[in-house]
């Protein structure tokens, strides 16, 4: 069927045309056949397909419809309701141009059960002639309430012979995610050809038959055929929810492939030698004795897990998960000392300057009495300082090196690096993480890796997306922590909140005021924060107000943080740069402006800056009206819970893992078919099937990974 305006007699439901035969050598894998081999795909169409991530015929097949239309049955016009999408057949009773608010062509069509108006705002004289009274037409479109009767606006239609049987589609009609300039009709023609190629050249079935039988999933070729051209008996509801067996099969295979790729990677990494770090416990013991507190049982357990593993002759790849404030840094310090005792160097990497600076202060404070020399690399130190630091690192005068991404630059040469600690890894996706690891290898041999994250993700999800890592969990907070009281208030109560700050700070407490903006630009954020700081300083003349944001020079930033930590500043106005890791125990009040704009995880991180001292702490989530339903539930989750795991679980439900763990593209896994939220019930099965494949069908693993993950992991020469 054609769209309005173009009018051929009718669509061909005959077998789709095969592309040029010359490209089809029998051994061609569809992944190796470029889309340009398909008929109708020239460089322009290819460029548009490329935007959808489609380069090969296999990519076409993995580009699944996101919904379906049912054009397999003709609906009686009398049964239509607004909102339906329907195929109808009827006789034209009247066609005329109406001059209403907008000129339009109206055709009234009846089928004996009722009548409906077709409305066209754009039309040609030919079209008008074509729709003459007495013609029988077949028509597909969305039904809506018009003036006086139901109508379809710009439906697809074609004229059918009065005495011929009405042609209907034999399959549900797929609607593909598309991009500008690429019509559904073109995508259908392209997939028709890809499906025809699939039939003559089916890819290997890589899932064992027994697995398919157990899970009730169809074979790959059938799954693809059904997903693209479902027969009418498949429920559109099931299809739209991506729950049909064919779609599930594809999602399953994709998740399995990603999981396997990470397991293979892990196995490969473990084949490399690493220096076993047998510490003598001398520094560690002195360190633990110098702390003003005892490690919690959870910290002790995790420190031991790490200690044992560092002593193995292959690289540790471990993730420490622990809620905000659970004390991950101390555990990392214990690990670092073990490496240093054994005569090696350690690198600590943080995602932001601010956090790196804080680690530097913390580690210097802890390690200087132990005579451990600390080096410092950030993007902001000057050339001379940098040369000095590089020399200390290369000549092993420094044993602990702290910094940002600057640590991984070309000219950073470690003398004896044995352990890399990465903080707050939720900012890095899988591929970034692997790239970091790779850099580590090129520059520094095969160090052990310890990653710390405050983003708690459910165990089964973790096993799928972090299958290359072992996980340690710090599942308790240090004693005496009081949950942070959280309230949600509209910004119309701003004055009241400012009074609250005045009271708290004049009684010796300290407060944060966090400014948020949708604008990503640091300049705009900095501007807004400095205006707010100005206003607050004016309204609260008795308080010392500080300001910190991404544009402030790092030496100055450090001075401001120090002043706040020492209590010389009472109110610190900040952008979300303070989100991660900043630790000032005496600060016990936090105001977050426009809290509705931030995600749950980010809010929880921010709030984690208070509630670190003896004082009972509070957090005020200030929002601007109107508040969406989504935002209201998000803020309520935070008000009702202080538990990072519970919050993360809710966040997953509200937003889905793609959002929680990073965006789709830069995110944790680059998925084409599967969805980590929707398909999460598959995770436990995936683990089991992956083990089965590795044990009994090893030869299938590499092609599976190749099919879905491609070469993405290959450049990581591990
Ligand atoms: P996070 O896990 O969020 O990175 P930190 O490592 O920054 O947490 O620790 C938060 C605060 O708790 C720090 O001030 C740290 O010194 C303190 N801390 C860590 N462990 C303990 C403990 N066992 N008892 C008391 N305080 C602790
Ligand atoms: Mg931390």
Can you put this structure into words, describing what you see?
By secondary structure, the chain is an alpha/beta fold. The chain contains 24 helices and 21 strands. A 7-stranded parallel sheet has the order 11-12-10-13-14-9-15, sandwiched between helices. Strands 16-21-20-17-19-18 form a 6-stranded parallel sheet, with helices on both faces. It has a 5-stranded mixed barrel with strand order 2-3-4-6-5. Helix 18 links the parallel strand 18 and strand 19 (571-574). Helix 6 packs across helix 8 (245-270). The longest helix is centred in the middle third of the chain and has 26 residues, at 245-270. It starts with 42 loop residues before the first helix and ends in a 10-residue tail after the last helix. Bound molecules: adenosine-5'-diphosphate and magnesium ion. Magnesium ion binds next to helix 11.
